Amino acid sequence: MQVIHNQSLKEYNTFGIDVRAKKFIEVSTVEDLKKILRKTYSEELFILGGGSNMLLTQDIEKTVLRINIKGKEVLEEINDKVIIKAHAGENWHEFVLWTLKQNFGGLENLSLIPGNVGTSPIQNIGAYGVELKDVFISCEAINIQTLEIETFTLADCEFDYRNSIFKNQLKDQYIITSVNFELTTKNHQLKMDYGAIKTELQNISSPTIQDISKAIVNIRQNKLPNPAEIGNSGSFFKNPIITVDFFSELKKKYPEIHGYQLNDNEIKVPAGWLIDNAGLKGYRDGDAGIHKKQALVLVNYGTASGSDILKLSIKIRNIVKEKFGIDLETEVNII
Ligand code: EPU
Predict the structure, then answer these.
(1) What ranges in 151-253 are assigned the alpha helix state H?
(2) What does the pLDDT look like over 290-326, one tens digit per residue?
(3) Structural domain tally of the chain?
(4) Which amino acids bring their CB within 6 angstroms of ligand 1?
(5) Against a cut of 0.70, is the pTM above it?
(6) The pLDDT value given to residue 134
(7) What CATH number is given to the structural domain containing 16?
(8) What domain range includes position 125?
(9) Is 151 helix (H, G, I), strand (E, B) or coil?
(10) Cα torsion angle, 99, 297, 11, 60, sign
């Protein structure tokens, strides 16, 4: 367990922002995590997973614990279901590929999402009609105060659209150490409702879960920038939820606007569409930009600082608010 002082975090956040951590410790076992938490009880902590959902706007004057606990295993197999445990430091996409290699179904629509397993419950990651909560059984997390490992069931986590209890009441109180998933071994439930998936798979008569994963990897690679090449954190904003009445009003003015009806009163509107139709897709201010192919993604073309990206995001919010009367909420955590 090595303590590094004044560590650059550039390699540890997918936006590639070069800020420094006052103290940086990489943790690879739960036992080490307990030891470190005992030693650092008087210090302010900053927990880092894959660094894929944060915008760092300043140096971190805290002790950064990078959770790198690896391991994945089959816990049990009953009929056509399997329970898998994956530790927090597993890279999400590598884990998804591992499940698919064994023909375990359920995670294929969540292929190529950046980040680690341990942070997936915090914002209930989701894509192409599937959210983490659909396959989640439970997670284990260490209570930073008591150092006890506690189990959180699906109900305990209070999952919602890009949200969970770990972002709210329990914020900064727990570190997730592992997640249990329930996947299928046969009779897989294929989710292909998204138009783009159907198009990708049009030449395959009976697609498999592996085909769906490949299709999603293609769709994402075509639309989303690869963080290894252009720094980004995926969707920067959440898709706003507005009332049906307000949506009808907007529709009169902008007939092409579309949304996804959530219930009798609410519609989720694509923030990407709003930003795009405010004329901002591809906009660039120095090295801070709005991705050319997907307006919901802000990018760092090289040397943008966190503040540059933040400034751009505020500009976007103001323009969208002025044009459509909608307040965009950030999905990425601003630090
Ligand atoms: N759109 C535009 N212009 C754009 C971007 C989007 O007009 O520049 C329109 C599209 O035409 C489409 C609609 O907006 O009709 C929705 O776009 P898309 O299907 O690409 O999905 P999204 O709403 O932009 C969400 C998630 C993504 C996830 C995709 C696919 C959020 C905030 N984002 O994006 O998640 O991959 O759906 O399910 O919910 C992430 O969270 O980082 C992320 C990438």
Answers:
(1) 154-157, 195-200, 209-223, 244-253
(2) 999 999 999 999 999 999 999 999 999 999 999 999 9
(3) 3
(4) 127-128, 234-235, 238-239, 270, 272-273, 276, 281, 294-296, 331
(5) yes
(6) 98
(7) 3.30.43.10
(8) 72-221
(9) strand
(10) negative
